[in-house]
Hints:
Elements: E1 4-7, H1 18-28, E2 35-38, E3 43-47, H2 53-64, E4 72-74, H3 81-86, E5 89-93, H4 98-103, E6 106-108, H5 115-123, E7 133-137, H6 142-154, E8 158-162, H7 169-178, E9 187-190, E10 196-198, H8 200-210, H9 221-247, H10 254-271, H11 284-304, H12 313-323, H13 326-331, H14 335-348, H15 354-357
Amino acid sequence: VLKFVIWTLPGEDGWASMDATVCELRARLEGLGATILHHGDRWCEVLPPGVDKGSGVLKLLSSLGVAPEDALAVGDAENDLSMLRIVGIGAAPANAQPAALAAADVVVPSNSDDGVAAAIRKYVLPEEGANMLDFYTLDMCPFAQRCWIVLEELGASYSRRAVNLRGSEEERARYEREVNPRGKVPALRDAETGVTLFESLLINEYLAERQEGGPLLPADPAARARIRLWNEHCDSQLAVAHFTLLMNKDAPSEEAKRAALDAALDVYEARLVGPYLLGDAFTLADANALPFFERLDFSLRHYKQIDALARHPRTRRWLDLALSRESFRATRQPEAKLVELYDKFLEADYAFGGLNKN
C-alpha cells in the first residue's frame, strides 16, 4: 500500500467530520510511524513509515548525485513540509497553506502568478553573463539575513546555499575545510575573484565595494566611519542587550536589563538623522541593524509583552520605513518560525551568540 486517501462531504448527513476523523486516526496510529496529513475539511492522507515527499526527493537527488543543500523545492501544502525542509532552498507560493509558509525558507509569488518559474529564475538560473556569488546561510540567523538584504538591495546574481551546522561531522568538516574554517554563517564565495569571505559586516562592505559603493557605502570617509560606528553599536550594545533581556528569567534583574536595552535604543533615538540612520539614503548601517530590530520588536512583544520602542518614536518611524523595503520583505521569515526558534532558545537557556555559538 502506497497510501490511503480518505474523503468526506462536510456538512452532509451521514458523512464524518474530517477534523474528528484525523484526530481519531492520529490517536489510533500513534507510535506506528504512520504520517497523517490533514488537507482541510474534505480529505486527508495516511502514509506508511518512511514514505513522504522528503524521502522521495532524497532518493531522487542521490540517484542524480546532487547534494540536498544544492536543491530547490517548491511546495504549498502540509504534505510538502518534509521536502521543503531537506533541501537547500524550500520555497512556498504566497497562497500556500500556513504550514508550508512556516516551513519554507523563502516565499515566491502565488501559483497563479508563476511562482515556480520565479523561484527557478531567481535561485537556479543565473543571468546570462552574470558573475555568480555563492551565499552560505542558515535559516533565522540575523547576521546572515543582513547579508541577504544587501544582496537584494544590490540586485546581485547569487546562489543561496543553506548550511546545516547541526548536521553530520562529515558535512560540517567539509564546510569548514572548503568555505569557512570557523564553521559559522554567513559566508560568501565570489567566483569572479576567487575570494571566500566570512563575518557579515566584512561581507557587506565587500559586496558594496564590488559594485562601487553607491548609496549603501558612500565614498565619503566620514559617512563610512558613521556607518561603522552604527554597526559596532548594533552588534556590541543593542543585540546583546536585547538577547540578554529576552532570555532573562530572574525577576529581580529584569529592570536593570530593560534599562540596558533602553540605553542602547536611546542612542538610535538621539543620533539617527532620518528618515534613515544617515539621512535620505538607505545604507549598510540600516541593512545591518534591520534584522536585529525586527527580532527585538517582535520577540519582546510576544514573550515579555513589552513595546520596546514605545519611548522611541523616531526609531519606530525609521524601523517602519526600513521594514517596508522590498529587500527586507524578500528575506523576511514567517513569525511562526521566529517563535519556534525563540522557544528553543528559552528552553535551552542559550547565551548570546545564537545558532552559531551554540
